[in-house]
Design a protein that fits this description.
Oligomer: single chain
Number of strands: 0
Shape: globular
Helix content: over 70%
Order of helices and strands: HHHHHHHHHHHHHHHHHH
CATH topology: Growth Hormone, Chain: A
Structural class: mainly alpha
CATH class: Mainly Alpha
Amino acid sequence: MARPQRTGGHTRARDLPLSFWWLWLAVLVTWTGRFVVPFMTLFLTGDAGLSVSAAGLIVSGYGGGVVVSTLGGGVLSDTVGRKRTLVGSLLLSAGTVVIIPLFGHPAAVALLLFAFGLVNGATQPAITALIADMVPPAHRRTAFAYKYWAVNLGYAIGPVIAGFVADRAFDLLFYGQACVLLVSAAIVLLLVHETHVPERAGRAEHADGGGGLLDVLRDRVFMTFVAAMFVYSVVYVQSTVSLPVAMADEGYTTQQYGLLLTLNGLLLCALQIPSARFMARWHREAVLAGALCVTAVGVGLQGVASSWAVYAVAVTIWTLGEMGGHPAAQSIAADMSTRRARGRYLGAYALAFSTATMVGPLVGGAVSEHLGTAALWFGCGAACLLLAVFLSLTAPARQERLAAEAREASAIGAPEDADRPPGEGGFDPRPAPVDRPWQ
């Protein structure tokens, strides 16, 4: 007999379906082996002897590919299926990353990084759509917290391995990442169920009065949120693009930088789920704005860091902001999507990070080279504070949108929105009961 779903109280691990946990494992494996991109800037400025701005331009090629594939991956998730899109993306990514070290010319590396991003970026909208499909709204916020926990558990392990290997043979990073991508593809192929049966072209887009990619991009409330997340993501990617270069210029080793990433991952692994229960006291819009303020303090502190210990304190602070901000934002985006066009909506949301992956290295490299790294970190802190204000001002529009959709779904008896916890339809930053599900 099927276990009844809980629609109130704290979401337990067993409330999430088994297929979610296999997907969680695939995410963990993938991020444990995410070796190449975080260390690519160091390789290009060190072994290849390129300038910071030139290295940033090359690494931004990966982001350019991801920009295209996040939208394309969202469309494919709706038209081909979430699982097929994810497995295909993982397999093609493995085949692409393994040939990058065979080419030494910067132009060839840039093109291959673009191709890698082009096939790899489709994983994110597919994964997010799978989670949103298989987990009802009442448990969705917790599911995204667990997913983010897997990402950072992998990050806690991966940088130490990558830093150790990169100091000896950088080529091995490419082969290692190809192997873990193949393992992840096997897990999804064999153990994760498809959640979306594709419909014929045209029928899927018009059966409910819309849902095409252009309709998503014209959704002003949703795309305003995406634009805000883009600015935050530009700040966020500096931790893997500008921070390692700034530390190297100050005489720190690759392993010392890797230890900071490990610190970030360990803190998220230890505190992500407990903090989820604590932050359930407040509305997720308030959590998101507060997380941005905390992030501002952390990245700003990097502008005056004079020792590795100060960098460690700064990373600890912005990690606290990260663990609150990302799951809250992702659950907001998932709830604003419709099931029929979920891949497109979440592909557009993933566009915020993918575009930042391309733009971030350019911004970080240019500001660091012409104004200095202190100006970069202070500017990032100011941007986070402004975003907190902007998101607070635009929160009522998003919550009215969710409330309107909930009323419409209730009128037609839609079961999915029946699971939405009370209070998520309107913006109220006051504490809610402690046992409220962290959606």
